[in-house]
Amino acid sequence: MTDSILIVGGGVAGLSAAKACVEAGARAVVVERDAIVGGKLAALMTQPAAGDGEGAGASVPRLEELRAANDVEILTLSDVQGIEGGPGNFTVEIRERARFVTDACTLCNHCRPVCPVVRPNDHDAGLTYRKAIYAPLADSLPQEFVIDIDACLNTPPNYLPCNQCTEVCDDDAIHFDVPLERQHRKHVAAVILATGFAASTADLSDSSGYGKHPDIVTTAELERLLMSPGPSGGFAAKPSNEDYPNSVLFILDALEPHAVQTVASQIERLIAQDIGRIAVLVTDQPGTAAAAVECLPAGLSVSYGLLRKVEPQPDQRLMVTFADFSSSRIPEEAYDLVVVQAAVEPADGLDALAEVMGCDIDAAGFVARPDPESAAATSRDGVYVAGAARGGVHLAEACEDARTAAAAALSNLDPRLLKAGTAAVASEEQDVETDTLAAEELRQRFERALFAMLESGK
Ligand code: SF4
Ligand code: SF4
Questions:
Q1: Residues 317, 399: Cα–Cα separation, whole Å
Q2: Whose CA is closest to atom 3 on ligand 1?
Q3: Nearest-CA neighbor of 79 among 457, 348, 409?
Q4: Tens digit of each residue's pLDDT (9 = 90 or more) over 325-347
Q5: Which residue's CA is the nearest one to ligand 2's atom 4?
Q6: Distance of CA 17 to the CA centre of its chain
Q7: Ligand 1 mean position to 150 CA, how many Å?
Q8: Which of 93, 370, 376, 393 gives 82 a disulfide partner, CB atoms 3.0 to 4.6 angstroms apart?
Q9: How far is CA 41 from CA 48, 89, 194, in A?
Q10: Contact call for residues 258 and 397 (beta carbons, < 8 A)
């Protein structure tokens, strides 16, 4: 009899689900592809508690809580290779790739300066640079350095032409002679898919100017700037010169509620930082967009029009030109920082993971939820979904999803393994699903009887 729940994905949703599981008395095994947990909000999780700004309204798990939780096992650089069994009794095969740096690492930082390989740091939304051996963030879980073996000049175990990092590591923490992979087998009662999302700029139009000037950033990049600790200490800054921006324009063309909520949260934080002028350009007709943008802070300057171009000026400002829908005018205004929306896409490899797990994906490539009565259920019994693995969600929704998925997953455990009180919550979720199944079965029986009557002509 297992007391464990497997969670695939160690971002906000996955870690929130893990926290809910251990609070209920279960064990959580978190499988994360990246070198650290936390996903895009890893830096936020280093903070002692959610304040009024970032993470407001969402109970984001903290790294210090997770470090202290004995019942959370975290496997980084890992992915699920196979699954057998059914609800209450799954066996899951997990592959863990080598980190090449052991827990003997004292974070002395001697290796980083000597490493000759430089790459953009994805953990800072590509706004900073790292080496092939690096600590993804100043504080992270786990906290050891890691080697990006695809970027490293060594090809272990036989071809080691560089080794500059090993030569300066006094703590003998770097080893290229370790097995490249380790296999793990876990017995779990249920699985929660919480793989998050990928922020894509592939569909941004040329007129947005993205990629042509560093001060045209995506909402994902701005989020990293506004997060403390971040590349600019949590303060809005122009990536071109780290100056404070006096004016910021948001260009909204994706009006899904989660996307507009994210922008609304960022605008509130910019207002709190006393940015002089914040404006919004909505590239949809006012009538169509009215409901979507009503969550934006009151008193903002909101224009509606078709973006013509964003053009860098000799003074480093960005001239924005658009065709105003409500007049025949083509206004031009200069801003210090322009924020465009990155599209929310399924996380890389989600389709392959869904195939391994035996779960359907929907037309957009996210994990399908075939049962409208159960927010967390996938097409495979005992496998649940939380957060952006099911589509675009904002932060508070992802945390709420995680609790729902955890409750559903816990219903597959023997209630005697759970703490008093939490078993009832889990069984309530199970009851809802059982009731739904019973209702569905009745409906199908009724339909069969009706068809039989029609066919027999009665
Ligand atoms: S030199 Fe060794 S101990 Fe120091 S940070 Fe690098 S890997 Fe860690
Ligand atoms: S061996 Fe790899 S990680 Fe170490 S210094 Fe050379 S390139 Fe960097």
A1: 38
A2: 105
A3: 348
A4: 888 789 999 999 999 998 889 99
A5: 165
A6: 13
A7: 19
A8: 93
A9: 14, 32, 14
A10: yes
Count the residues in the chain. Answer: 458
- One-character DSSP codes across 142-163: S-S-EE-TTTSS-BTTTB-S--
342 pocket-lining for ligand 2 (C-beta < 6 Å): no
Task: Supply the pLDDT for residue 403.
Answer: 94
Return the beta strands (E) in 208-349 as ranges: 216-218, 247-252, 277-282, 301-312, 318-324, 332-335, 337-340, 343-346
Q: How many Å from the N-terminal Cα to the C-terminal Cα in the chain?
A: 52
Regarding the beta carbon of 110 and ligand 1, being less than 6 Å apart is answered yes
Using CB atoms within 10 A of its CB, is residue 256 exposed (0-12), middle (13-18) or buried (19+)? middle
**CA distances, 174 to each of 104, 115, 116, 150, 179 (Å):** 9, 13, 16, 16, 13
Of the candidates 258, 265, 282, which has an alpha carbon nearest to the alpha carbon of residue 340? Answer: 282
Q: Are 222 and 339 in contact (CB under 8 A)?
A: yes
User: What is the best residue among 144, 145, 164 to mutate for testing ligand 2's pocket, by most ligand atoms within 8 Å of CB?
Assistant: 164
Measured from the CA of 171, which atom of ligand 1 is nearest? 3
Q: Is 167 in the pocket of ligand 1 (CB under 6 A)?
A: no
Summarize pLDDT for 115-145 with one digit per residue, the tens.
999 999 888 877 789 999 999 888 889 988 9
Give yes or no for a contact between 268 and 275, defined as CB atoms under 8 angstroms apart: no
Q: Whose CA is nearest to atom 8 of ligand 1?
A: 105
Q: Does ligand 2 have an atom closer than 6 angstroms to the CB of 117?
A: yes
Structure tokens at 323: 């065709």
pLDDT at residue 435 is higher than 60: no
Q: Which of 112, 144, 150, 153 to probe ligand 2 with, by most ligand atoms within 8 A of CB?
A: 153
**Token pair listed for 80:** 């699920």
| Cβ count near 336 (within 10 Å) | 21
Compute CA distances 271 → 10, 208, 228, 294, 337, whole Å.
31, 23, 16, 17, 14
Give the residue among 403, 357, 262 at the shortest CA–CA distance from 368: 357
Q: Residue with the nearest Cα to atom 2 of ligand 2?
A: 152
355-369, pLDDT tens digit by residue?
999 999 999 999 999
